[in-house]
Amino acid sequence: MAVSRGDNPMRTNPLLRSWTVLTLAAFAIAQAATPAAAPQPLLAHQQLARDIYRELIEINTVTATGDTAQAADAMAARLRAGGLPEADVQVFKPAPKKGNLVARLHGTGARKPILLMAHLDVVDARREDWSFDPFTLTEKDGYFYGRGTTDDKAMAAAFVATLIRCQQEGYQPDRDIILVLETDEEASSPGGPYGMPWLLQNQRKLLDAEYALNEGGGLGLKNGRPWEMDFQTSEKVYQSYWLEVRNPGGHSSLPTKDNAIYRLAAGLGRLAAFDFPVHLNETTRAYFERAVALEEGQMALDMKAVSQERPDPSAIARLSAIPIYNAQLRTTCVATRLEAGHADNALPQTARALVNCRILPGETPEEVRQTIIRVLADDQISVTAPRNAAPSPASPVNGELLAAVEKLTQEFWPGTPVIPTMVTGATDGRYLRNTGIPTYGVDGLGTDLFDVRAHGRDERMPVKSFYEGIEFSYRLVKALSGGR
């Protein structure tokens, strides 16, 4: 059960406070000091992580035009300089400017390895849109700015710094720790893919692990304060469909009722009014059960009601009006592009729309396509998929991992509940899940739940969150690898 923020025993009983918590509190106070206060000098491992972070941000790794091979080489050099043997740090370049890194910190082999994954590529960022150069790490007003500061170079820096720190300490885990930094997570390139699918096809043995830690979860902030720790166990399936109407067309001075644009628009109107049925799974039911502790009044009552075996329809309706909750309840489909006509003075011969769907685990793209056809209720509107997405099963809740995350969360951010989560976007964790490697999204890199700038202008990471996050990752990896 999630601990209520008002009933946290670590707050009410001083005997339960550890020296670790006091140290973290002192560190948080130092990081939150006013600009007039003297800056606190960074510890050696913090400076290392910041240097790695800066180096990653300042290598342009835009998926279509950047150079992830350069970033992979740079991180390989960092790891080798940190003491990892040459043979345990490998860079694979399946195409020019496309690079993946696989590194391994050897353990005793008492248990199966764990895998740490992050992606090197980022979405495009135009200098004229930003307040800062997106490919320079800028620290200002308590934030790090730059493309990839949250998605996903902070996690990559945290994992690289963790491996180096463990190596330099002489730490011997009871299982191998595998680090994978991949390319092309943000979009498949023409002729690709060159990232995780390529690695699984060509270097599967190097990636074999009991489970993987990935993006897609982590600490959520509200008004700058820790609010929830999302423990991501599943993700929706990204699948698009083209809806298309074809027509003989003709001269615009002789219009007919059978107009391709009107027919498509009418079908889209029916789709817009339709809601897919509510389907809760183990993760989403636990999400609403635990999120109750964060809410009050009608919202708390509705979350409690919707998590029951027979949800209250009125509670479903109220939660469905909130996009972030609606996306947890059901498969969603939304029109994102329109194309129609070929001349100002001609009746349209074609009209088509792209509908982007995010499909719940357990439902298939073909089932969703058939539902769309039924809702459109017009056999003149074809529905085709430009590509067929592979469904991604949910990862079972891992008790050892969840317990470690809950313990560390209470030590770092007392009273913050850990909430199993289904991410509504998409990550490359789906490829690992489909090969039998359970994958979980979790990190301590706190970002604002209501100011999401990943893929947008002035992407940023709180400075305090970055340093807390690298320490959280380091301690989580050590907790899960149980060595000396």
SS-based class: alpha/beta
The CATH homology group name of the largest domain: Zn peptidases
Beta-strand share of residues:
15-25%
Read across the widest sheet, the strand sequence of neighbours is 1-2-6-3-7-17
User: How many distinct domains?
Assistant: 2
CATH topology descriptor of the largest domain: Aminopeptidase
Portion of residues within helices: 25-40%
Task: Give a short account of the largest sheet.
Answer: 6 strands, mixed
CATH architecture of the largest domain: 3-Layer(aba) Sandwich
Uncertain regions spanning at least 5 consecutive residues: 1-36
Q: Regarding CATH, which class of the largest domain?
A: Alpha Beta
Task: Specify the overall morphology.
Answer: globular
* Total helical segments: 15
* C-alpha end-to-end distance: 31 Å
Radius of gyration, taken over Cα atoms and rounded to an integer in Å? 24 Å
Tell me the total number of β-strands.
19
What is the average of the pLDDT values? 90
Short description:
The protein starts with 8 loop residues before the first helix and ends with a helix. The chain has 484 residues and is α/β, with parallel strands linked by helices.
Question: What does this protein look like?
Answer:
The protein has 484 residues and is of the alpha/beta class. It has 2 domains: 42-216 and 427-481, 3-Layer(aba) Sandwich (Aminopeptidase); 237-384, Alpha-Beta Plaits, CATH 3.30.70.360. 35% of the residues lie in helices and 21% in strands. The protein contains 15 helices and 19 strands. It has helices at residues 9-12, 19-31, 44-57, 68-81, 153-169, 196-202, 260-272, 282-291, 297-306, 313-320, 323-329, 365-376, 399-412, 429-433, 463-481, and strands at residues 89-95, 98-105, 114-119, 138-140, 143-145, 177-182, 211-214, 218-222, 225-235, 237-246, 250-251, 332-340, 346-347, 350-359, 382-384, 418-423, 439-441, 447-448, 460-462. It has a 6-stranded mixed beta sheet, with helices on both faces. A 4-stranded mixed beta sheet has the order 16-9-8-18, with helices on both faces. Helix 3 runs antiparallel to helix 5 (153-169) and helix 13 (399-412) packs antiparallel against helix 15. The radius of gyration is 24 Å and the shape is globular. It starts with 8 loop residues before the first helix and ends with a helix. The model is unreliable at 1-36 (pLDDT under 50).
